[in-house]
Structures are given as C-alpha cells and as structure tokens.
Amino acid sequence: MLQYTLRRLLSMIPLLLLISLVVFFLAKMMPGDAFAGEIDPSNTNPQYIEEMREKLGYNDPIIQQYGRWVVNFVQGDFGKSTVYKKPAAEIIAQRIPNTIFLAFTSLVITYIFAFFMGMYAGRKPYTLGDNLIGTYNYLALAIPSFVAGIVAIYFFSFKLGWFPFNGSVGVGLEPGTLDYYVSKFHHVLLPALILGLMGTASYTQFLRNDIIENSRKDFVRTARAKGTKESKIYNKHILRNSIIPLITFLGFDIATLISGAVITETIFTYPGIGALFLESVGRRDYAVMMSITMILSFLTLFGNLIADLLYGIVDPRIRLD
To answer: Which residues cross the membrane (predicted)?
Structure first.
C-alpha cells in the first residue's frame, strides 16, 4: 500500500502542473487588470501606470510570468493580495480553519443522517417510512442550497432566533475560552446543517439501493439458509458490502464540501475560503483566486487517493497494486 500511495502522489505532479497552466491562463484572460490594486488610485498618470506594470512584471512574456508564478508557488510564495495588501498565504491561512470546521461538521451530519436513513429504507423498502425518506431525498436534490439557506435564516435566525445568521464567533469573546468555542459551534451549526442535510439525499439513496441489491444475492440467501440471525446478516454481510459506495464519496467530499461552501458561506456571511474565493473573483485578486483554486485541486486529487486507500481497508478483497 505504501508503494501504491507513493506512485499516486508522484502521479499528481503532472496533473497539478496541467491544472496550474489552465488556472493561470484563465485568470489572465479575465477582464480587468490585477495590478490595479497595487496602484495608488490618486495617481492615474499613464507613465506611472506603465512604470508600475513594468515593476510588477506584467509586461513580461506570458510564459515567463507563468514560470515565475509556478516557481514561487512551489516554494510557498502564493503572491500578494492586491486587495488586502498582504501575502495570499497569510489571508488563506486565516480563513481556512473556519472552512475546515464547517466542512467537518457538515460531513458528520451528512453521514449520520445518510447512514441511519439509508439503513432503514434499505431494510424496509416500499414502506411508509421508505416513501417519506424518498420524498425528502427528491426535495433535497431539487431545492438549491442557497434557497434552503435563505429560508433557514429567515425562520431559524430572524423568526425564532435560535441561530446567528452571520460571522463565525460572537463579538468580544476571548479565544481559547469555553464561551468562545461554544459560540463558534453555535455559529457554524446552521450553515453546516444546510450543507449536511442537503447533501444527504444522494448518499441515502445509494446506500438504500445497494442494501436492497445485496440482500437478494446468493451469499445472503446462503446465510439465511444456515439460520443466521437477520440482524447479523444485515450488519455483517450486507452492510459491509453496501458501505463501499459511501467510502467512495468520503474521499471526494474533502474538496467538494470546501468548494461547495462558496455559496453557503456567502449567504451566511461566514468568513471562510469559499466566501474569500468569491470575493477574489469579483475584485480581480488573482493571487488569492489562483491559490485557492490550486488548493482545491490538490484536495480533490488527495481525496481521490484517500477513497482508493479506504477501499482496501473496508474490503480486503480489493488489492492496491
């Protein structure tokens, strides 16, 4: 497994280089000018602007600019934000813990609800409970997350006052205290519920269908013929095979939840990298925008690797050669 992991990590290098090439040239093709944020708005003298363009390297050949950006990025220099006048790495480092906390909380919610609803629907198909779960799944797939977020804010924040509708922590709380962590969890819970519950539908449906399919296979019939308890058949034989599709999703969710939080973070005014990415696109902050895109690309590839490794742990019959 170690050799397989090393091979997969090495294979990521050309993929990431290709992604960096696409990201860089797409950013350069966007309308607007990145260097505008570096210039004193009180000085619009054409000569001064041209001097700044030369100083920032925007007159260099595009290939030379790309090469300089890649070399700096590999060395940990993500460039300087033209909006915040700070290194892009510093700004992302400030925001990413909030997004990780949001993604982790929503992932826990997703898998808890998907596991129990999928197990129930799979063991008791075509019953009233299964039909209700199926109805919820269709609604969750049909309703956009931003609509659900707005409705949740209206009812649970404005009407009932159960949850805050913006920020990541209460004002004036001392970091490291119990009240501080309670406030952070309170602020993240509503957006995490929206992300988690809206993403539960596909997991539940996959688990349900796989349980029904596996329950009809020969090895299950053999176990029943031997007098094995029904609970043991479902928990040991069927569930072990049916949980593999969920393991597939788990790896991809590392990046999907972070990138999918762009809209949710914006709606809830939650200070994570999703909202930061949307802001960087709107304000042409190319250093931050390209850095976040590369981070999400790496997480997607890394998540795929984790999913493949988990295959071998859940089902030893799958060999990773």
So the answer is: 100-121, 133-156, 188-207, 243-268, 288-314
